[in-house]
Amino acid sequence: MILRTFGFSEFGFLVSALLWTVVLTIIALSGGGIVGFVIALARTSTHKWLRIAAATYIQIIQGIPVLMILFLSYYGLSLAGLQLPPLVAAGASMTIYASGYLAEIWRGCIQSVPKPQWEASESLAMTRVQQYRYVILPQALRISLPSTVGFAVQVVKNTSITSIIGFVELARAGQLINNATFQPFRVFLAVAALYFVVCYPLSQLSRWLERRLHARSHR
Amino acid sequence: MPEVIVENVHKSFGSVEVLKGVSLTVERGEVIALIGRSGSGKSTLLRCINGLEKINSGRIKIAGHTVSSDPRQLRELRRDVGIVFQSYNLFPHLSVGDNIMLAPKIVKNVARAQSRETAENVLKLVGLSEKFDAYPDELSGGQQQRVAIARSLAMQPKVMLFDEVTSALDPELTEEVLNVMEQLARDGMTMILVTHEMAFARRVATRTIFMHQGKIWEEGPSKQLFSDPKTPELRQFVKADVK
Fold first, then answer.
1. Which 3 state secondary structure label does DSSP give B235?
2. Hey, where are the domains in chain B?
């Protein structure tokens, strides 16, 4: 067996795998965003059972490792006769994972809009939907931006876990290249650098959004 | 037919009874001042009148609506009853103009042009025409409170409730808010106000109601009530204010 060396084409392979990491992150955040949004609304609902159901969902998702969700959707479902392609299993698992955390982050943001805002809009004869749509959510959205972007950084890094079911994203691509080159330091430093290139700007964005939010509320 | 009827209303928070059988009628165009110590139940009564607090027993009718716990009925009621709070509660993410136009547009489906015209009119009424495009955090407390009044007026309510609307303001800003309210009273608006401004109550309110320990302790035409208090509690209260 001839060992390859880590060169341009190998690096190119990593970059193309980074694309899948990004794709998976986008799936997780948009899917998880939609599900998480619904759960956050249920969590702040006036109906007791909706609140309890949403809280239970959040507790369960936050209480188990993403890896278990991944195994359940990949191996578990295949035993049940449903063989999901790795991308679908990975996307679904990351969606479920992200929804549990985004729901909780957003619940906090919705509840941090001061109660008098509810009373003022209620007193203007708005329906509950109108209160959310025009008064509460626009304020909650602004509050939620820093923590949501911060969470996106976690998602980018946690997509690496899907390498375990053979989905070729950045971490998995690093393993493959390392198997062919056996230059772990070069390979995984390159992998780490690529993660950093994506995550660092997001972290900075999150910090900037937070500073801006802070400045606004103290103007 | 009276504009507001409150019949034997009881209200408790947990085991504490804050309203112990309050009854009250308000005729159209009357200005009622609710006075009393903190904890006497005056703010709670006001909040019960537009359904922000649920009553335990009794009956409240206002502007032809009965206060109930049904959200739809409450919305009908609130189209006709405005309330202004101590803490202004403007929507911070909307400009002054949008604060005022929002409810007429989405609740009453008023066309954009017309809601803008109404907004300009009510802003002029409170003396803030030039602030249409400003944001709440660019305004002083007194200006914010006047915008909050304008926002309520834009719904063209039949009754206005004011819950200690000047308590968070320093004297100079208090004056500009009270002037707006006095103007409203002169224009014939039916108003109920919880206030600590005794001079204002005396001058503007047609009737003043002194609440004490969850009950209406003493009531009467404002001038008479202030100059000749019957109960020792009110005498004490009025005296404390003069000092």
1. helix
2. 4-242
One-letter amino acid of B85: F
Per-residue pLDDT tens for B120-141? 999 999 999 999 999 999 999 9
Q: What is the mean pLDDT of residues B148-168?
A: 96
Give B79→chain A minimum CA distance, Å: 6
Sheet containing B215-221, strands listed edge to edge, beginning at the edge strand earlier in sequence: B81-84, B159-163, B190-194, B31-36, B207-212, B215-221
Interface check for A124 against chain B (CB to CB < 8 A): the answer is yes
Nearest CA in chain A to B72: A127
A120 at the B interface (CB within 8 A)? yes
For residues A100 and A36, is the Cβ–Cβ distance under 8 A?
yes
Query: Do the chains contact at A128 and B50, CB–CB below 8 Å?
Result: no
**Which of A80-94, A106-120, B146-160 comes out lowest in average pLDDT?**
A80-94
Domain ranges of chain A: 8-217
Could you give the ipTM of this predicted complex? 0.93
B4-242: CATH superfamily: P-loop containing nucleotide triphosphate hydrolases (3.40.50.300)
CA A202-A208-A212 angle, to 5 degrees, is: 145
Distance CA B68, CA B51 (A): 7
Q: In terms of Cα–Cα distance, which of B121, B127, B130 is closest to B95?
A: B130
- Check pLDDT > 80 for residue A1: no
B85, B137, B155 member nearest A120 (Cβ): B85
The CATH number of the structural domain formed by A8-217 is 1.10.3720.10
Chains A and B form CB pairs within 8 A to the count of 57
